[in-house]
Design a protein that fits this description.
12 helices, globular, Nonspecific Lipid-transfer Protein, Chain A, 3 domains, about 325 residues, alpha+beta, Arc Repressor Mutant, subunit A
């Protein structure tokens, strides 16, 4: 699920997404240093005096200015040039972003099958793999296509699913995903040999990170839009099997969800079938309940218990119970 926002002037606090911020290694190193200092009870920290291996002091100062413009870091005591160095601390937005990173770290280390005692370098590689995937629109589209598929895809089917990405670009991006074990390349034993691709189940929780990224951006910025409807369907497709059917719902009934935004409406269905829920495209059938809202309202509803930003129509109790089930599935999926 890719996010976009109206164009802004250079240096605007809204110029980068949460994923892009975390994917930048110097920015992430500063964020973690400030976050860990805060966790130890420190109110402020002299970041420019801290050694960052492989990162020059000039680059540290540049990233600090960027974090300050984004409202993520604040200068608590600014140096006048005659005293000590400037002291920095995380803002509320920065603390939320630090917590978001901690969650991504847990997801990525689980996906990479790393034990809790794994060396920091191995954890960093796992996180970089997750962030690199989320920050690359082509890689995201590949992962979404495989997540939505009900079986491994052969090359023609995968090429069709990621249209209009050029074939050469697709396989150039696919190779590192296979190498990182995000995607399985399955080679058949028949003659001639067949090749198919499937998403590694352990990496599926990474697909839910954009929901949390949207929540962070909508909490601290107010102009978030979703530019990739397929990403939304991909997240729900992954979560739906984990959502228990509300007690009052009967097989064959449905709930419609709609995201309203200037970039265009995104809509779909949650079908109640058996004991669980199925995510489906909107085929204009009658729905017993409906929930509508902006991306910020949806992000808040799926990460917190606040659904006041959504407009509920039809069976309100069914809508609330279904949303609670989706939220529970999301949180259990990423833990």
């Amino acid at each position: 699920m890719e996010l976009s926002r109206p164009s802004t002037k250079s240096g605007s606090r809204r110029s980068r997404s949460a994923i892009a911020l975390l994917a930048d290694a110097p920015t992430r190193a500063i964020l973690l240093t400030l976050g860990e200092a805060s966790s130890r009870g420190g109110e402020a920290f002299a970041v420019t005096e801290h050694p960052f291996p492989g990162i020059t002091p000039r680059l540290v100062r540049d990233r600090l200015r960027g974090l300050e413009r984004a409202g993520i870091a604040v200068a608590v005591e600014r140096s006048t040039g005659h005293g000590g160095p400037t002291l920095w601390a995380l803002s509320p937005a920065g603390r939320d972003l630090f917590n978001l990173y901690a969650l991504l770290d847990r997801i990525a280390t689980h996906a990479a099958e790393l034990p809790a005692t794994a060396q920091p370098e191995r954890r960093t590689v796992a996180v970089d793999t997750a962030l690199g995937t989320l920050a690359d629109p082509v890689a995201v589209k590949v992962v979404q296509a495989l997540a939505l598929a009900d079986r491994p895809l052969d090359p023609p089917a995968l090429e069709l699913a990621v249209t209009p990405i050029p074939r050469r670009t697709l396989y150039r991006r696919l190779s590192p995903l296979v190498e990182a074990k995000v995607v399985h390349r399955i080679v058949g034993r028949t003659v001639p040999r067949s090749t198919t691709y499937a998403l590694n189940d352990r990496w599926r929780p990474v697909a839910t990170m954009p929901v949390l990224s949207t929540w962070w951006e909508s909490r601290h910025w107010d102009d978030v839009e979703i530019s990739d409807p397929e990403g939304v369907h991909g997240v729900l497709h992954a979560l739906a099997p984990l959502v228990a059917r509300p007690a009052q719902a009967k097989p064959g009934q449905a709930m419609r969800w709609t995201i309203e935004q200037p970039a265009g409406r995104i809509t779909g269905l949650l079908l109640f079938d058996g004991d669980h829920v199925i995510a489906a495209r909107d085929d204009q059938r009658d729905a017993l309940a409906q929930a509508t809202g902006a991306p910020a309202a949806w992000a808040s509803a799926l990460v917190t218990e606040r659904i006041t930003g959504l407009e509920i129509a039809g069976d309100a109790a069914l809508a609330r119970d279904t949303l609670a089930g989706v939220r529970s599935a999301l949180l259990s999926y990423i833990r």
